[in-house]
Design a protein that fits this description.
four-stranded antiparallel beta sheet; six-stranded antiparallel beta sheet; D-amino Acid Aminotransferase, Chain A, domain 1; Dna Ligase, domain 1; alpha+beta; 3 domains; globular
């Protein structure tokens, strides 16, 4: 089978973080890429880390000759809502970490300090790479966050200083395939200037987790993945956790390829394992589910 491969980042020497490839379809280079994708020929599949309006419009205009290998933005978008995740967890038999959903302007610092201790965590409903997460250690910092965020819903929760695992998984028609989890590196001063910033993943550090915690990560990933499938989601995704002793709490669903996906793929390739990303691709192809089952 012949295939044309167009690597957007190779053409533009630009990495677009958190906004999909929509901006790369704009301008002169974007016009060339769109023209090449829309030219007559074989059916083309577009492999993207997450769905986006630009790609979906291009696919719709192609008369089904272009197919993004990703769930639609309408399905994937709501999955990243941290407040929505907290609300759905009890129905999946998963305990969320102690928290409350409140308005930062109305939140009272002494009350929150008494309830959760210091520091406590304030999170916006959405964010990536550590954005939208604030560690509050003093009243002045709380006041600054109040002024910055204004009137909107946020999550306030206890700060858990334990390890922060992350896992990649694939939602298929008949189940969820999880990978081996890694430990997120967060707030490393040599990497980022803020304490909640994402810095990378360490797969070897997972050995420091209790076996009970690892089993809980797998079980919670399958439960959440099955729920996502019921909402119409398909393909790669991931989830961030925090661990308090042997207790595991889901924090955020990443309905896309993650920062850890590339490293996972490299490690699986070097170890001779079946690549999880290929299960993602196969899941969107006709007959692909059968390929996944036989692998």
């Amino acid at each position: 089978m012949e295939a044309d491969i167009i690597a957007l980042e190779q053409e533009t020497h630009t990495r677009v973080w958190g906004t999909g490839i929509g901006p790369l379809l704009a301008g002169d280079v974007g016009a060339q890429i769109s023209s090449a994708l829309m030219s007559r020929g074989n059916r083309r599949f577009i492999l993207v880390s997450s769905a986006g309006e630009g790609v979906e419009k291009l696919a719709a205009a192609s008369g089904r000759r272009l197919q993004p290998l990703a769930p639609t933005a309408a399905v994937a978008g709501p999955m990243g809502d941290r407040i929505g995740l907290r609300r759905v967890l009890p129905s999946l038999g998963i305990d969320p970490m102690p928290h409350e959903i409140t308005d930062p302007v109305a939140a009272n610092f002494p009350t929150l300090e008494h309830r959760y201790g210091l520091p406590f965590v304030v999170q916006l409903p959405t964010g990536s790479g550590g954005t939208g997460t604030f560690f509050i250690s003093e009243q002045r910092g709380h006041r600054s966050v109040q002024e910055r965020l204004g009137v909107q819903q946020v999550i306030v929760s206890k700060y858990i200083a334990g390890l922060a695992p992350n896992i990649n998984a694939v939602v298929l028609d008949d189940g969820v395939l999880p990978s081996y989890p890694s430990i997120q590196l967060v707030g490393v001063p040599e990497c980022v200037p803020w304490e909640s910033g994402y810095c990378g993943n360490d797969f070897s550090a997972t050995r420091r987790l209790p076996d009970r915690a690892v089993r809980a990560i797998y079980e919670q990933t399958r439960r959440i993945g099955r729920w996502m499938g019921e909402q119409g989601y398909q393909g790669m995704w991931g989830i961030d956790f925090v661990v308090d002793g042997s207790r595991v709490y889901p924090v955020e669903v990443n309905a896309r390829w993650q920062g850890s996906t590339r490293l996972l793929t490299d490690l699986q390739y070097l170890d001779g394992q079946a690549l999880l990303v290929l299960a993602h691709v196969a899941g969107f192809l006709e007959g692909g589910q059968t390929l996944v089952k036989s692998a």
